[in-house]
C-alpha cells in the first residue's frame, strides 16, 4: 500500500488506484485479482482495515485537504439561520446516545464527540440529503474500523456517492430508493426462493415490505454483529464489481433463514423474525461460508443495478 498522500495525489491526477489497474495487466493482473479476492473474502484484520479500505475503495479520489474541518465550521456558523440544518443537528444529537450502546469503550474513547462531529460535517457537505436515521450506525462502525475522523468521514461520503444508489438518502425522494430495493429484492426472491416468495404472498406481504428497510438503510448494521458486518463490508468496499453486494447478502440471509420464516404464522411474526431473530454464527469459517454463498450469487444478480434504476423510476411516479 502506498502512503495516503501519494495515493490521493494519484487519484486526483486521474491515475488508477486500488485494484482498478489489475484489469490492464493481462494474465498477471487476473492472478493478482484472484489473490486479492481470496484475501479479502477471508477477512481483513481489524488493524489493517483503515489503510486497506481507504486504498481499495478509492476513497482518496474524493478527498479534499482540510475540507472536513471546513464542513464542521460552516454548519456551526449557519445552523441558527437554517431550520433544516438545525433540525438535522437535533436529530443527530438524539440518535448518538442510541448508537453502539454495547460498545462501552467506544464512548470511553470520546466516541460520542467524534461521531457527532462526523455526522455534522456530513449534513454540511450534503444539504440536499441532510441526516437520515441509519447514517449514525454506519458512521459509528466506520469509526471503529477507521479511528481517524476525517478518513472515516470521507469513506462515508464515498459510500453515499458511489456504493449506495444515487439519492439513496435524499430528503426529496424520502425512502423511495430503499422501497424500490425491496421490490427488486422480491423479484429475486421469487426467482431464487419460490417457496418463500409464495409464503410472503400468502401472508399478503407487499413487495415494498419484503425485508425491513433498515436492512439496506443501515447497510446491515441493524441486524448483524460487528465481526460479521465488517467482513461483509470488506467485500462490499474493497472488491471490484461488488457495489451491489448488500443485495447478495439480503438474499443469502433470507435463504439461510427460510425455514424459520416459513414457520411464521402471520405478518407480525415475519417482521419480528427479520428484525430480531436473524442469527449468524461469528465463527470465522461460518462467516466465510456466508460470504462465499453471497459472492456466488453475483451471476444470478448481475442485473441488480438496472432493475433498481427502473423500479425507482416507477416508485417516483406513484
TrEMBL record:
Q: Which intervals of the chain are annotated as region Disordered?
A: 1-30
SMART domains noted in UniProt: TBC
Name of the protein: TBC-domain-containing protein
Q: Where is the Rab-GAP TBC domain?
A: 43-240
The species is: Sphaerulina musiva (strain SO2202) (Poplar stem canker fungus)
Q: Which Pfam families match?
A: RabGAP-TBC
Single GO molecular-function term?
Answer: small GTPase binding
Q: Which stretches does UniProt call biased (Basic and acidic residues)?
A: 1-13
